[in-house]
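Ligand: zinc ion. Inputs:
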Amino acid sequence: MPALAHHAPAAELADRLTRAEAACAQRGARLTDIRRTVLELILQAGEPIGAYALLDRLKDKSGQGKPPTVYRALDFLLAQGLIHRVERLNAFVGCHEEADHPHPVQFLICGECGNVAEFEDQAIGTAVATIASRSGFVVKRSIVEVEGVCAECATLAAG
Ligand SMILES: [Zn+2]
Ligand SMILES: [Zn+2]
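Predicted complex:
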């Protein structure tokens, strides 16, 4: 269960963008320039980043940055499973995995330092599916967000 990568080195970032492009192509989707740039900015941030901050960085970087353009790019990246929205923070993070498939998401959110760790536990996804199916409920999106204090902050508080 790797935590989110913080400030990935440039080569790693380029590599990841290339893989994201390939993953999209495999599904017949296209990682256009704007989508790629938005993904790059989210991965570069190294922490959850909100839509307004993204807009600002996009304007700095490329002179582009009309809100609808950014929201459409975000929708695309969410649908492709390349990023997730942390509802509690109203912000976006890159998927902790190597790009790829849409999947149920679980987050541990530290209220002290704001660190967000993503994990994917099959048991939770299965439990949600089981509960839903009992009442004939069709799950479209499942996100579990757990708020608390991360190990580092807990150690600091104890010291
Ligand atoms: Zn993920
Ligand atoms: Zn913390």
